[in-house]
Amino acid sequence: MREFKKNDKKLIRSWAMFDWANSAYNLVITSTIFPIYYIVITQSKDAGDDLVSFFGIPIINTVLSNYALAFAYLIMVLALPFLSAFADANGKKMQVMKFFTYLGAIACMGLFFFKLNTLEWGIICFTLAAMGYIGGVAVNNSYLPEIATPDQQDAVSAKGFAYGYVGCVVIQVICFVFVLKPAWFGIVDPSFPARLSFLLVGLWWLGFSLIPFSVLPNNKPSTHALGVGLQHRVRMEFLTVWAQIKKNKGIRRFLPAYFFNSVGVQTIMVVATMFGQKELDLAQETLIATIILIQLVAILGAFVMSKLAAIWGNIKVLMLVTVLWAGICIMAYYLNSATQFYALAFMVGLLMGGIQSLSRSTYSKLLPKNLEDTTSFFSFYDITEKLGIVVGLVSFAFIEQLTHNIRYSAVSLSVFFILGFVLLGRALKFNTLLKQMSDG
């Protein structure tokens, strides 16, 4: 295994390039071109509910995509503890990271063949791409305490997200040209620009991931799991980490708050484009430009929140951001113009970068010092986030299916942020947590 020092600039840049690589999926597939393309090819002006047939089952188009994404996250929630324990116990962190990256990138390329008559294929590729993204990010997050000292983790986490936001904007603009100006390239098939974008995202994701793969070190096998069989090693690793988490009151106080915040934040990021298209009938170029704006503003948000955390402390800043998120959900219910949508999108971008970056570095600071099994510890962080997404997407889809009004789904997310705020307040009062934060 390579020797490396914490806070090494080259190492940090290489680690951040993984965010640059995989954020292409998060923007193009989760937030912009895919959802717009999906709505366009599946909506029916004659059927008011936009019903589609999935393996013969009639279902609302947006409900289907939300359920598919929730299914992907649920599978990963169940798998991550054991995959991370396997990686830590056997020194296979990099191999696991590569597997999920290749899975996600190839699934994105598979979306090139997605049309209305291949709906089932498209949903399957969409689901596998999400699983690949989740698995890769989970491992990449676990490198943070290994490459940066606690006093640098807020800034390094923000840098990673900044790379991700810039990278996804670059690939988005490239795809944007094909979508808006197909005549420049002699494209006559109206579905081709979007499908080409999915192919480019897969290639981008796979290609730029080779940078961190060539620089980041692999982990050493856990010493307490040596000399036993594979199944037993994984079980020992999982139980050892679980026991340490139960003893760490800081983590136990933080994760429930992070769960409820993730329900709201991650769901908003997934459904924002569909909301704008279904409720305000915004043009696709307007929606894509708006989402690009969100990514650019998020860069500012990540660094601003990092600076504020140095002054006020991580938990207080997270509490402020959570209150503002709840306000966004309530305002979404009353949206009735494109101008209001743009204003709300600006707020989403500013807060999105801040809450994601600061939550990751906060959790990293709460981990035991001189920790070897970072993958397993961070798997619980990622499980919390992904389980939150499952709950958010399912509740959002269920409320829309029940009421046939996506606005009720949007405003309901404010409840989760309120619960997150209350639990963060509980964590703020905990002296041990505050001491751990100040030590960082």
Just give the CATH class.
Mainly Alpha
**Mean pLDDT across all residues, rounded?**
82
End-to-end Cα distance, whole Å, is 27 Å
Poorly predicted runs are 431-440
Percent range for β-strand residues: under 5%
Task: Enumerate the strands of the largest sheet in spatial order, edge to edge or round the barrel.
Answer: 1-2
- Tell me the CATH superfamily: MFS general substrate transporter like domains
Structural class: mainly alpha
Pattern of helices and strands: HHEEHHHHHHHHHHHHHH
Strand tally: 2
Number of domains: 1
Rg measurement, Å: 21 Å
Helix content: over 70%
Write a short abstract of this structure:
This protein has 16 helices and two strands.
SSE map:
Blueprint: H1 9-29, H2 33-42, E1 51-54, E2 57-60, H3 61-90, H4 93-110, H5 119-141, H6 144-147, H7 153-180, H8 192-215, H9 230-247, H10 249-280, H11 284-312, H12 314-333, H13 338-366, H14 374-403, H15 406-428, H16 431-439
Antiparallel strand pairs: 1-2
Walk me through the structure.
The chain has about 450 residues and is mainly alpha-helical. The protein contains 16 helices and two strands. It has one domain: MFS general substrate transporter like domains (Growth Hormone, Chain: A), CATH 1.20.1250.20. About 80% of the residues lie in helices and about 0% in strands. The protein has a two-stranded antiparallel ribbon. Helix 3 (about 60-90) packs antiparallel against helix 14 and helix 10 packs across helix 16. Residues about 430-440 have low confidence and may be disordered.
